[in-house]
Amino acid sequence: MNSYRYNASTPFKSGTDRLKNAIRDVPDFPKEGIVFKDLSPVLEDRQLFRLAISMFNDRYQRRQIDTIIGIEARGFIFGSALAYVLGCGFTMVRKKGKLPHKCLEASYDLEYGSNVIEIHEDSLEKGMRVLVIDDVLATGGTMKAAIELAQRLETDVVEAATFIELEFLKGREKLGETPVFSLITY
Ligand code: AMP
Fold first, then answer.
1. CA terminus-to-terminus distance, the chain
2. How does pLDDT run across 51-105, given as a tens digit for each residue?
3. Catalytic residue at 5?
4. 74 is catalytic
5. pTM of the predicted model, to two decimals?
6. Distance (Å, whole) CA 68 – CA 142
7. How far is CA 183 from the centre of its chain?
8. What lines the ligand 1 site, CB under 6 Å?
9. For residue 35, which atom of ligand 1 is closest to its CA?
């Protein structure tokens, strides 16, 4: 599976530039003052979606990841595709009330609103090497809460990965010692 590789067809633009070009800014969604980063055009393009997963794969294929923790909902898209190519497991972190079995929960503030997320308490084993992934790192509250859940289950959080990082919101400063990797920054 790890011979998986995207073959860039446009030599003049970096992969990051091609991905960034495709992201659509939607002003005032879901609330006034928020510029929503809509990555649907990346997913809809067969080359760009593969490119994004290939770039994550390049970074993580030799990091012995046991499982990827994906954050609902768009973290599931990147996380599950990456778990497939890495050949590792995939664990869901979901909004409260969605997971059917016994859960641990953590609450956090969003760039817009607040929320509670959960993980199945038997989904990870102590000492597992995990990667936590989401689509956007904004204020960092969501990622921080997901990392906390992983740490309460005594796993080793190798890194937090995001497709987009809004650097001006300084989300990574909330994540303490956990390293952060993002494909695209604003
Ligand atoms: P935060 O907890 O502030 O880091 O927010 C991250 C979560 O909110 C991610 O799961 C994103 O899907 C979503 N999010 C926050 N801000 C944006 C934005 N400007 N564009 C798209 N998604 C966002």
1. 32
2. 999 999 999 999 999 999 999 999 999 999 999 999 999 999 999 999 999 999 9
3. no
4. yes
5. 0.94
6. 16
7. 10
8. 34-37, 71, 74, 110-111, 134-143, 171
9. 19
